[in-house]
Specification:
The protein has 332 residues and is an alpha/beta fold. Helices cover 39% and strands 16% of the residues. The chain has a twelve-stranded mixed sheet with strand order 3-4-2-1-5-12-11-6-7-10-8-9, with helices on both faces. β11 (284-288) and β12 (294-297) form a beta hairpin.
């Protein structure tokens, strides 16, 4: 078993993160992928008892100590909650603990005590009420780690990798903000990550068009010729293996997916709909452009099923496995 564990954050304590953590330990304790939870040990013990899960919870003094504990108990570096969480009902009083869990995980990864960070889902609205000043995990982690350049969200599954150039914005706003520079920056960060983190010697990037049929030579829109085409030309000038613009309605077929390693998409749903349709359970969110490894399950807090014993840990287990794999590629 590796001697450096992954740091697993608390996520929203009113959501399904705690159950996912417990079930992930049950599934991974004998598989050589140790992690340490940055969480409230009392709430994890209570949740395990409520759900009838046989998960011994042990407080760890350090990441190194957590590795020794992992085969027999879920190791926890304590981050205490202000009030007992109520499933499905986020409480801003616990926001400080949620943020502290993320901060400590990033610190442990930066120091090398943790191999990387895996984040459980958070509720941004609850954090905003408590004064959280960042759009989400990615931006906060970029500040915590002093990351330079652009940070990119990649969604990865065994069947497909996608990168949306514009992310959490309306479709109207996404089209308005799309630029050649944004596409080039996203593709460069993605290509570097595929080489250095994923171990792909010559990554193949497929760039999606924006309009139906990739614009049909301008008949259905001109963004392919005025914005996307120049980006592809610039990337080819960098020596990057890139193709496109691909018609978005045909680039995700089984035959098409064999021709590239990642799809660079123009907006959020263009990327996430095919990935989640192909493999909702094993999709993983990977942040590219950070000096640490960070992955997350590709779903939210699921308040509607929190505390009911229905949460599926497949995506979190996939996030842990991918994070462990990425830490094997150390060249930066």
């Amino acid at each position: 078993m590796t001697r450096t564990p992954l740091a697993l954050t608390m996520g929203d304590p009113a959501g399904i993160g705690g159950e996912l953590t417990l079930r992930a330990w049950l599934g991974l304790r004998g598989q050589g992928v140790p992690f340490v939870a940055l969480d409230d040990p009392g709430r994890l013990r209570a949740l395990a008892a409520t759900l009838g899960l046989r998960v011994p919870v042990a407080e760890a003094a350090s990441c190194a100590a957590a590795v020794a504990l992992f085969p027999d108990a879920l190791p926890v570096l304590p981050v205490l909650l202000a009030v007992p969480p109520q499933p499905g009902h986020p409480d801003p009083a616990n926001a400080r603990a949620v943020v502290a869990s993320i901060e400590r995980a990033a610190m442990l990864a930066m120091s090398g005590e943790a191999a990387g960070v895996v984040t459980n889902p958070i509720n941004k609205a609850a954090l905003y009420e408590a004064g959280f000043a960042y759009p989400g995990h990615t931006e906060f982690l970029a500040v915590l780690t002093g990351a330079a350049g652009q940070q990119i969200m990649m969604l990865a599954s065994p069947h497909l990798r996608v990168v949306p150039v514009t992310v959490h914005a309306s479709l109207r706003a996404s089209i308005a903000m799309l630029s050649t520079g944004m596409i080039v920056a996203a593709a460069r960060t993605t290509e570097r990550a595929l080489r250095l983190d994923f171990g792909i010697a010559t990554p193949r990037l497929a760039v999606a068009g924006l309009n139906p049929h990739a614009g049909e030579q301008g008949a259905l829109g001109d963004e392919e010729t005025t914005i996307i085409g120049p980006a592809i030309a610039a990337l080819r000038g960098d020596g990057i293996h890139v193709s496109g613009p691909w018609p978005p309605d045909t680039m995700f077929t089984p035959a098409a997916r064999k021709r590239y390693d990642v799809a660079i998409c123009m907006y959020h749903d263009q990327a996430l709909i095919p990935l989640k349709t192909l493999d909702m359970d094993h999709g993983v969110n990977v942040t590219l452009g950070l000096p640490i490894v960070r992955t997350s399950p590709d779903h939210g807090t699921a308040y509607d099923i929190a505390g009911k014993g229905l949460a599926d840990p497949a995506s979190l287990r996939a996030a842990i496995a991918l994070a462990a794999s990425l830490t094997c590629h150390t060249l930066k």
